[in-house]
């Protein structure tokens, strides 16, 4: 089985270096260099990273000082005049000063929503956002889903930021400034926030309760946020944790090919992987493997085609599946139709299709797809093309019916690649 290795080693590469290697006729070095070049995607701009860390530090400091103001857990010894022991006053000053920074930082982030790159924006008002949200939730619940791949924040993450960092921050700012200026109701600042009182219950206790409740909501958000970031980093191996320091995430090479910047530096078309799977011990179930030599000949005039012998290696197929963005799976497909009929399943149909399993020890391709989907590395475009088997009896030869239909199968695979390449 041909496999595609992924390297996480840092590598200094530029488009200029890659193009020089192409002109020098060194494809092996160029491929290694380019694979590293296009895996690095600049997602979080410096203003976003600055906002993140200022916001995180402000929330932590506000929470710590806020807890102390509400329930002092440390009281300095008082051995003199009160003016020399102003610890509570200092805590309050730190709390208020941090609140000013928190507010300014929030305004700054709102501005960068319009000024920043694609990943700094949110499409919450678009239909696709909410459709994607449903699929993401189904994915986290391990339900069948068609969750798209997201390089930045997925819709569920975006929605949580809108609720906590957006709405939650506004509530904290309004209630906090009301409580700050409440002792001076006749001042310009007191009058400016007087309208907050009826908005949050009509009395001081209600306003303060809202302030405390949302503060603890922030703590819940922080815990979940850190857990989900670590989980995403571990499952996807995409540098989620380091990206908030460097701005860069790492994607499988095939995915990064889709950007215009990468297409401008490399002339060859995007890779298409043709994966033959099956079991040659059970007659027509070996179709996917028996068709590979014919496919090798028929696709010889195409550039950047990878032919993978899947045999019956189960989860070892996860590597080739995740390393491409265009995948054609060739296999026997039991659709209860006329033997030899060419059957084509789209990406949406594959996870729910009950393929052929010859043994309880053989992991079906559906499990491979599910694992790639869980790790958010499912190919963007994928089809399964196969034939209805005539026999699944113990035999190492294909039936005549399947032999006769092989040319049509090969042509269907070729036609699919032509369609992708013409897009």
TrEMBL record:
Residues 43-247 form the Cytochrome b561 bacterial/Ni-hydrogenase domain. The keyword Cell cycle does not apply. InterPro entries: Cyt_b561_bac/Ni-Hgenase, Di-haem_cyt_TM, Hydrogenase_cytochrome, Ni-dep_Hydgase_cyt-B, Pept_HybD-like_dom_sf, Peptidase_A31. It is found in: Cell membrane. Its main location: membrane. The chain crosses the membrane at residues 50-74, 94-112, 161-181, 213-230. It is a multi-pass membrane protein. PROSITE patterns: NI_HGENASE_CYTB_2. Keywords: Cell membrane, Electron transport, Heme, Iron, Membrane, Metal-binding, Transmembrane, Transmembrane helix, Transport. Pfam families: HycI, Ni_hydr_CYTB. Belongs to the HupC/HyaC/HydC family. This is Ni/Fe-hydrogenase b-type cytochrome subunit/hydrogenase expression/formation protein. It comes from Sporolactobacillus spathodeae.
